[in-house]
Amino acid sequence: SRGYGIHTNLSYNPSENWNYGMVLTRYDDELDINDMGYLRRNDLEELSMSGEWVQTGFSEDSVAASASWELELTLARNTAGDHFPSEFEFSRRAKLRSGSETRFEIGYQTEGYDDIISRGNGRVRLNDRWNAELSYRTPRRGAWANRFELEILQDGYEDWTTSIGASTTWYCADNLNIEFELNPTWSKDWLIWLREEDRLASFSKQQVTGSINGAWFPAEDHEVRLRTQWYVIDATGEQGYDIAPGGGLVESADPVEDFAEINFSLQLRYRYEIAPLSDLYVVYSRGGEDTLRDTDRNPVQLLGDSTGLRDSDQFLVKLRYRF
CA nearest 113: which of 135, 85, 145, 78? Predict the structure, then answer.
């Protein structure tokens, strides 16, 4: 296919304390560049504007070293003229004298259409929604560095979701570190398509996502990396919806089936630098995913099931020479 698009980013920095930006995007519904890079979506007309004030000059006894306040507005629609929810976002980031960083963000989305959620079976009109996020990150202190995030949002039709993210990195030695990350989520209104043309449903969802990543440099030119990722979802059906003309959702009397989904992946990679721009890679990877209708197990039991998935089990040797 042949498609056309434009992406323009304009910035204006009148002083060291003020920054302004504007991003203009238009992709037609035939544009497809996924074979050469990532495209969030096509069939899009979007305008994003932002303003930022960087606050400095804090007193020496202040906890904060600097702070930035940002306001962002995003307006978007598809090329057929269906307006997506307008997004308003206000955030504050602060760098502390201790080396830690904090961030607070609150956002609001107006009513608008989602033309993707039904997988080509019509647009869906969503209610207005709110979200808020708070994060705290520490620098490396001794052998540890930590991060914590809390997010509360409306990501479905009308109810709320709470998500916690935490990670810690352990620097066992100068040449060895291991990162542990865990992200549990509790949703009362997870809205998804049911693979049945014009039907959607909301679920109560418990989800746990996590990863363990390690990096070891045993000697010069040698590198060993371990990466594992998983997620488990336990979803209880709450309410089914039919898509009415105009995109509104109408409650359906048809029952919604519970389900669970598990996913696990592991990669162990060794790299030897033969010379600049020349490397030898030896990689082992495995993993898979599965959807279960037996939902009597809790997320911890589902996690145990996920580690046994072997849809893909591969061993790869790759030589790159000056390329």
Answer: 85
